[in-house]
Specification:
- By secondary structure, this protein is α/β, with parallel strands linked by helices.
- Helices cover 36% and strands 16% of the residues.
- It has 13 helices and 17 strands.
- A seven-stranded mixed sheet has the order 2-10-9-6-5-3-4, sandwiched between helices. Strands 8-7-14 form a three-stranded antiparallel sheet, with no helix packed on it.
- A hairpin with a 2-residue loop joins strand 7 and strand 8.
- Bound molecules: pyridoxal-5'-phosphate.
Length: 378
């Protein structure tokens, strides 16, 4: 029998993966020997090369975080006016549009994948639309084919927020090769990290030049500053940690695959719970997150009830993504933010709960968390 006492220590939704202190010390010695801390140092150059291969992309530019990378992506494509995006994402996604003086236009989501509903994008296009900013939410790929079709028909750019999608592939192709540009976040809580950091990936050598100028104040050489750039540079210590973490990412992914299977096994038969969407045949997922949806009418308890009660057992799940970005005070006045325009997103936002998921979590702990959830059902 499962013991339904509270866990002795708090279980959080995630824990950063730590390299050993010895590995970091060794790399720090290299940096100290090179006497180079930032601005395209040797660690930065090597990590850019290694990540280009790991993510199977033609070009990659490193950044100090994913948000600055996404701001620069919009600048590099000279986007303006309106950009169609999803309300079911982290705050950074619509905020980067605001930082570019672009109006986010919220499009409803597909309740099966929780990604932007590619069939609804067309109805949100106006003469001001310049791009689609889609998010591979929880690492599930968007309908990249349909999104590109709509974009091509209307002459729109496509940017993917791939912050959740490190290492995801479709038909053996890196997820970062779809659309005009993809952004990856290497924040400490992501599957792969550089403490803080990020990258843009794309298939155009000219675009890489422009992105690399934009992330370094627009400085071309000692005599020329050619555009109003920003400071988006990744430092050598973060780059060195990133090089070490490349050796951890597949092991972490495999541990999470196992925990996914345990959650699926324990929760599959519970009425009123929707589990992660199944993996399509040609897709390689990264298993970074485990998210459930709770239908109060069938389960008998609301998501908020489950969230609150789990805390009493020392289980700190998170309501990702609630509130929706369309509910933020800075966006709720937009026409596209009205709940009538976003019925699926509003339902999903009330139902989602992100469960503890990290390699250091024990299988037995996952079984106990599932037993606790099942004990709430009525
Ligand atoms: C983490 C995240 C970001 C922001 O990345 P940072 O590196 O923290 O700036 C953007 N979008 C999504 C969907 C994210 O999860």
């Amino acid at each position: 029998m499962t013991n339904l006492e509270p866990f002795p220590e708090r279980i959080y939704v995630t824990r950063p993966v730590f390299p050993t202190i010895e590995e970091v010390t060794e790399k720090l010695r290299d940096i100290w020997a090179a006497k180079w801390l930032t601005n395209n140092g040797p660690q930065h150059t090597m990590l850019e090369h290694e990540l280009t291969e790991a993510l199977k992309v033609p070009y990659l530019s490193l950044f100090n975080n994913g948000t600055i990378a996404l701001i620069v992506a919009c600048q590099s494509l000279r986007l303006s006016g309106e950009v169609i995006t999803t309300p079911f994402t982290f705050a950074a996604t619509p905020h980067v549009l605001s930082w570019n003086n672009i109006s986010p236009i919220f499009c409803d989501i597909d309740p099966a994948t929780m990604n932007i509903d590619a069939d609804k994008i067309e109805s949100m296009i106006t003469p001001h639309t310049t791009a689609i900013l889609a998010v591979h939410v929880f690492g599930t790929p968007c309908d990249v084919v349909k999104i590109q079709e709509v974009a091509d028909r209307y002459g729109l750019r496509v940017i993917y927020d791939a912050a959740h999608a490190f290492g995801v592939e479709i038909g053996g192709r890196g997820i970062g090769t779809f659309g005009d540009i993809s952004m990856f976040s290497f924040h400490a809580t992501k599957l792969y990290h550089t403490v803080e950091g990020g990258a843009l990936t794309h298939g155009d050598a000219h675009l890489k030049q422009r992105i690399d100028l934009l992330k370094n104040f627009g400085i071309k050489n000692e005599d020329e500053v050619v555009m109003p750039g920003i400071n988006g540079k990744l430092n050598e210590i973060s780059a060195a940690v990133g090089r070490i973490m490349l050796g951890y990412v597949e092991g972490e992914r495999l541990k999470r695959i196992r925990l996914h299977a345990v959650y699926n096994e324990e929760l599959a038969e519970v009425d009123g719970l929707t589990l992660m969407p199944p993996c399509a045949d040609d897709v390689k997922l990264n298993y970074q997150y485990y998210v459930i949806r709770i239908d109060e009418k069938v389960f008998g308890r609301s998501r908020d009830f489950v969230y609150d009660e789990l805390r009493k057992y020392n289980v700190f799940a998170r309501k990702y993504f609630h509130p929706l970005c369309s509910e933020f005070t800075c966006y709720r006045q937009l026409n596209s933010a009205s709940p009538a325009n976003l019925p699926a997103a509003n339902v999903v936002g009330q139902q989602v709960l992100s469960m503890p998921m990290y390699g250091g979590l024990a299988e037995d702990d996952v079984r106990k968390i599932c037993a606790i959830i099942k004990s709430f059902k009525c």
